[in-house]
Amino acid sequence: MGKHKKINQENEKDNNSRLDSNQDEHPNNIIVGIVFIVGFSIIVFSIISVIFPGLLISAIGDGEFLEPFEMSVMGIPIIVTNIIIISLIILHNRHTLPNSIVVYIQKIFSFDLSQKSSLVLLIIVLGIYVALSADEITIYELNQYGDFLIVERAIEIWPDQESENEYVSEQLSRHVRMGLLVASEEIFNNVKILPFVASILLLITTYFLAVRFSKKNFTGLIAVVLTLQSSTFFTYDTIAVYENFWVLFYVFSIYLIFQKPKVSSIFYILSIFSKAITVLMLPISILVTIFADISNKKKIFVIITHLIVLAVSLVIFQFSNTIYGNVININVSEFVTGFTTLGFNLRFDIVLLLFLLPVAIGLFLKAKNGSKNAISLMILICGTILVTPILEMITDFYFVYPYRYVPLVVFFAIAFSNIFSKK
After folding, report:
1. Does the keyword Cytoplasm apply (predicted)?
2. Which residue in 285, 250, 228 sits closest to 177, CA to CA?
3. Which of 5, 124, 180, 345 has its CA 20 to 30 A from that of 106?
4. Where do runs of H (alpha helix) occur along 237-349?
5. pLDDT band of 172, cuts 50, 70, 90
């Protein structure tokens, strides 16, 4: 009797947990409206800066010699693509598309692969990727990026010594990253090995996060292929100076919010000590947690542990010999300027630039139909876009290079694949 009573209590507890997590399954329309109004504002600002690179800078008075309405090379392709796709979306919602097209669309949306087949294809895709990229790890990185001198110096003196060079000092404060780079150098005699492994693991994480969001195996493959076709990802996937450790840890922490909430914050703190910029991503993680399909108890645990991680990180930065407290220089006008960096840095990521707005519209339609995952994906996309303008506003110490947009590339790929989800 005691054993059966215990089992019944556990079952009741599990049922309550499920009810707790699934209550108010459909998100409030007001919340959806707020998230997507803010989200569309961020995306439209970004797209405008791509089509008219000088417009936002001229609007704040910094573009004396710029022509505000001079269109970029990508301007017309973006406008034409968006008009066509938005028109198709409108026709589809009004049920005026030809039946043959509707049937074809339904077949695409209903298509899926078994888990086994999908994983086999993933291994094949990763194998091709590794084969194509393996030669890059033999290249001496100083021949690719001059900043490698800074990393080399940091590897030589980490963790016991300090540096008068503020850029080397900044590298030394990123202990997780430095530990991995030093391990790569000492174990494999090649500093590029572990950065390459991190990029492979990032692709695997992208696959499983896409599947988790969409509940379809095929979408994971779409997300991986879209990430691989990104010029930004492919440029920095084997580079030690601009490695993907921080991206891997952050994206994996998002995945763990859904799968293993109790350990998500561990990987979040690993991302912070790989690259401090992920401190700015805490609000993104909290909002994703709020909309996650997990119990409220788990949500509270994730949020509290993430806040503790942030507090601990700030204390460590404050009392250790880091430069972060000395590089804060707030300039509000740079917030607007920060939006203009997306078009320049992602100028070779044509798929992302062409489909960013249509994907956002697709997420909005899914959110209106009750998909909390669509809201989370919109938050991830817009949050990662917003990080750069905020960083530009609070400091002039860092240069905005394309590698900072790798999280956006990953979340865009997952969001694009989510359009093909069952719901």
Report:
1. no
2. 250
3. 124
4. 245-259, 264-272, 282-291, 296-319, 333-345
5. confident
Pairwise CA distance, residues 29 & 112, whole Å: 30
Map 340-363 to HEC letters.
HHHHHHCCCCHHHHHHHHHHHHHH
* Contact between 358 and 416 (Cβ < 8 Å): no
* CA distance linking residue 359 with residue 41, whole number of Å: 14
Q: Where on the phi/psi map is residue 385: left (φ > 0), alpha (ψ -120 to 50), or beta?
A: alpha
pLDDT band at 325 (very low <50, low <70, confident <90, very high): low
How far is Cα 273 from Cα 135, in angstroms, rounded to an integer?
Answer: 29
DSSP class of 239 = -
By the 10 Å C-beta count (0-12 exposed, 13-18 middle, 19+ buried), 160 is classed as: exposed
pLDDT of residue 321: 62
Domain borders along the chain are 2-418
User: Which pLDDT score is estimated for 3?
Assistant: 47
In this prediction, residue 322 has a pLDDT band, given cuts at 50, 70 and 90, of low
DSSP letters spanning 381-406: HHHHHHHHHHHHHHBSSS---GGGGH
For the chain, the residue count is 423
Residue type, 134: A
Q: Tokens representing 342? A: 């997306």
Q: Check residue 328 and report its DSSP letter.
A: B
Predicted pLDDT at 421: 85
Nearest 5°: CA angle at 382, between 62 and 403? 75
Tens digit of each residue's pLDDT (9 = 90 or more) over 271-309 = 999 999 999 999 999 999 999 999 999 999 999 999 999
Burial of 323 (0-12, 13-18, 19+ CB in 10 A): middle
